[in-house]
Every structure is written in C-alpha cells, then in structure tokens.
Amino acid sequence: MQHKVTVVGAGNVGATLAQRIAEADLADVAMVDVAAELATGKALDMMEAAPVLGFNAKITGGGDYAATAGSDVCVITAGLARKPGMSRDDLLAKNAEIVKGVTEQLVAHSPEAILILVTNPLDAMCEVARRASGFARSRVFGMAGVLDAARMRYFIAAELGVSVEDVDAFVLGGHGDTMVPMPRYSTVNGIPLPQLLAADRIAAINERTKNGGIEIVNYYKTGSAYYAPSAASFEMVAAILHDKKKILPCAVLLEGEYGLDGLFVGVPAQLGRGGMEKVIELALADDERAALAKSAEAVRELVEKLPA
Predict the structure, then answer these.
(1) Helix 145-160 vs helix 199-210: angle between axes, to the nearest 10 degrees?
(2) Whole-angstrom Cα distance, residue 184 to residue 193?
(3) Which of 4, 17, 84, 147 could make a disulfide contact with 232, Cβ separation 3.0–4.6 Å?
(4) Which CATH number fits domain 145-304: 3.60.130.10, 3.50.50.60, 3.40.50.300, 3.90.110.10?
C-alpha cells in the first residue's frame, strides 16, 4: 500500500518538501494551506512534471483537511516566516495559534499519524502540538538538528575542501541562538574534527552554524531558508516510512535524558516506523552539558510564555 504524507503549508518549505517526496516516489502527498487555491495550483504544477520526471506518486492540494485522512506522517510547516530583525521568539504567539488549530484538524482525520514540526520557534511549537494532539512523544517531534547539522557539515566541508559525503556532525539543544554544535562528535571520514582544524576555525564554524538561518534571511530579505529545511524534513520522513532506524538529531520530548525533563530539546534520536523510537544519550563534557542546559532553559522560557 502506498504511503501517504500530509504537508501543511504550501509555502516554500512545504511545497519543496511535497515535491521532494513525490519525485522520490516515497508517498502520495496531500498539501493543505489556508490559501487553498495556491495549494491546488502548486499540486497541479507538480503533477504536470510527473510525465517528464517519471514519478507515480499523487499530489493533491487544497484547503480541506478531509483530503489528509489516513496519513502516515504529517509535516507542519504552516506559520509566519522570520523577517530581517525578527527573532524566532517573536513568532511565538501567532504561530502557536496556527499550530494548535492545524494539529487538531490533523488528529481528527489521521489519529494514528506521526507529527513532524517545522514551524518556528520549533521547540515550543512541538510542545503546542503535543498538547493539542495528546500523542506520546514517539509521535510528536521536530525537524531542527538535521538542518543545523547539515549546515555545519557543509561549512566543515567547504573549510577543508573535502566532499560533504565524508562529513558527519551533530548539533544539540534548542533550534535557535543557543544551539550547541558538537565538534568533538563531528568527523571527516571518521577523523575527529579537532584533529583537522585549529580551534579558532572550529569556533568560527560553530558560530556560523548558530546563525545559519538568519544568514539566509538576511540575503533573501523577504523570506527564510527552504531548500535545506525541506531536504532535512524529507530525510526524517524517509527514515520513518522506510523504517530505517536512522539516528538523526531531532527536537524530542526528554523524560530524564541528559538530566532534562518535560522539554523538547534537540538530541540524537532513532527514527523508524514507530516514529521517535529511542533517544541516544551522548557522554558530554562539563562545558557541553552546561551549554545544553543553557539552551534548554531558553526553550523553557518560551514554553512558559505559551497560552495555557
């Protein structure tokens, strides 16, 4: 039976994700947006590419959540995007309202689905969706670390002049200014990064990783990144639908791991057909643990501002 994925939001991230899923023949896609005709038009445009590209997945678009019924995975990208000078925190109230309403609709039509959050501020929006859905933590988590790590991997590869395929990296913590790049757990074909780069160059890469999103916003002026975010979301969806048991950094609800409880924080997690199947605990140095605790506190401050 063909898998089905709902993508909420037909903007740049959502539409590009829908396109990636369909072109890979990973699943049929239902794309929903408050701008129903926009979603319908983009879906039709993508389907008219199918004869050329040779994919058989079906893409529908519109504003009716009835079309999302029976989805295996629902990816929520809907919400306001950041503009220059706007922090992720500024988005909190409006996007919380949007995500709550979207989640209620998705759960009503696909009560067994797995929810992946992409809307910012990411970690707080995961909590909004958890409350609205009542789902276990295995079925509500966020796309953040895959994107942040991808940025770090690219920056490392560019600095060293090596293939991006040889570079692995991890980023922990909240999806924002307090994220914690982990050069000690970053490797180039198995070689630890600190053996290949001087400390000042690593520090520069860490800083650029933290500001990766706003760097794109400042170039675009009127929008935010979408090619890399959609690719990161695609990797997570594929890991779930193909039951890959892939270990990826995701925003997950911690229940005592890393000394944290009741917060969505970016950590390595195993993704498979059951959703988020296992949290992987890394051995952290004192400074790394302190940085993660600081990042978690920033997430807690956001969550405490959410409407009850």
Answers:
(1) 140
(2) 7
(3) 147
(4) 3.90.110.10
Q: Residue 116: helix, strand or coil by DSSP? A: strand
Catalytic residue numbers, as ranges: 175
Mean local confidence (pLDDT), 21-49: 98
Cβ atoms 180, 292 nearer than 8 A: yes
> Distance between CA atoms of 147 and 175, rounded to whole angstroms?
10
Tens digit of each residue's pLDDT (9 = 90 or more) over 107-122: 999 999 999 999 999 9
> Which positions ≥6 away from 200 have C-beta within 8 Å?
none
Task: Please state, in angstroms and rounded to a whole number, the distance separating the CA atoms of residues 297 and 77.
Answer: 25
What pTM value is reported for the model?
A: 0.96
- The strand pairing partners of 231, in sequence order, are none
Q: What is the CATH number of domain 4-142?
A: 3.40.50.720
Residue 174 pLDDT > 80: yes
128 Rama class: left (phi>0) / alpha (psi -120 to 50) / beta:
alpha
Q: Could you give the C-alpha distances from 83 to 14, 77, 214, in angstroms and in order?
A: 18, 16, 9
With a cut of 70, say whether residue 222 has pLDDT above it.
yes
Confidence of residue 156 (pLDDT cuts 50, 70, 90): very high
Read off the pLDDT band of 93 (50, 70, 90).
Answer: confident
